[in-house]
Amino acid sequence: MVSQLPVSIVDYSVTVSKTISQDLPLAELERMCRSKISDDLWRFIGPAETGSTYHRNIESFGRFLLKQRLFQGISSADISLELFGQRVKTPILVDPIGNFSRISNEAEVDVVAGALEAGSMVFIAHSWQSSLEKVVASPHPPLVLQSLFTKDFEELKAKVKLAENLGFAAVGLTVDTVVTPKFGDTVPYGTGWNLKSPTIEDVRKLRKETSLPFFVKGIMCEEDALLAVEAGADTVVVSNHGGRILDYSRATVEVLPEIVKAVGSKAGVLMDGGIRRGSDVLKALALGARATLIGRPIFWGVTVGGAEGVSMVIKKLSDELVRSMVICGVKSLEEANEKILLFAEQ
Ligand SMILES: Cc1cc2nc3c(=O)[nH]c(=O)nc-3n(C[C@H](O)[C@H](O)[C@H](O)COP(=O)(O)O)c2cc1C
Question: Which residues neighbour 174 within 8 Å (Cβ) at sequence distance 6 or greater?
């Protein structure tokens, strides 16, 4: 009798997957997500305070224009790349989001399955409910562990070792949760936050615990990028946590050039925040990011369409990226550089 249960779950997910259109604009997906979740959860995935940083992330892509270049004999573009020793089909990766389990029990598994289908890579957040063993038990894309600096270093060390033993591609630390995330004017975690804000010595200490590539996420200025790389980061992720931490911060795409200039010759630079179009991805790559990550669009996708919703979001942005590259005369990701960018008058 018990063995029949999983069958009905599988049937259910198949039904969900058939309902999602591959042409759905992300703005429509966002509206559909809004109508499916509670007011509380909607506020929870929103930005801190006035939302200035969140909106600035999105709107700042408008400061850069793309230069059309024809007559290059280009009709398609290769968007595959090698990252952390793994081949991925797209430079659009899945951001660490700690709260997929608030959507449903299956959401985390669906995110992994959807990213696999789209040929992407998943950053598993520190606070995912699924154990790392469970995540690797099913077919999965390349995985990366995002940790937060817990007060119990031994526990953190053990998790990093486990990720290494399970074949993860990289591990790293999010460093911007020096204060807890906030939605609007509410601080959801109150004082129940078992984290220590990491010093640069903490970063160095954790880095020494693993031989895997190590990233530091949440870098928003040149000075911190230099410190992170000096402490052993192979990769820095330019991120302001999607505007959930500091209101009136600069946008990530505004900060990206200064970070690439400071550490780009010594470390990889990834970026996230406000990416809603394939052209946003191309702009970030042209400014020197090796790849990009997306947060909320994945949340909307998995809420509305499970694994299929996640793969739809990544494939849609990847298709838009290819179209933009072709019309800009760019054949591969290595060819994306500042020559295809113009600066819009404000
Ligand atoms: C609901 C929610 C939960 C998040 N949880 C984490 C987390 O656990 N760890 C982390 O490093 N970043 C976390 N982030 C930040 C994302 O990884 C990412 O930096 C941000 O969402 C990117 O901006 P975007 O949503 O505009 O794409 C979270 C963001 C949201 C919206």
Answer: 96, 126, 146, 147, 148, 217, 218, 241
Compute the distance from residue 97 Cα to the ligand 1 centre, in Å. 5
Q: SS3 for 64?
A: strand
* 217 CA: nearest ligand 1 atom: 11
Q: 239-270: per-residue pLDDT in tens?
A: 999 999 999 999 999 999 999 999 999 999 99
Q: Ligand 1 within 6 A of 295 CB? A: yes
Q: Ligand 1 mean position to 259 CA, how many Å?
A: 20
- Supply the residue whose CA is at minimum distance from atom 4 of ligand 1: 97
Domain extent listing, the chain: 25-343
Whether 241 is catalytic: yes
Model confidence over 20-61: pLDDT tens digits? Answer: 888 899 999 999 999 999 999 999 999 999 999 999 999 999
Beta bridge pairs of residue 78: 332
CATH for 25-343 is 3.20.20.70
Tell me the whole-structure pTM to 2 decimals.
Answer: 0.94
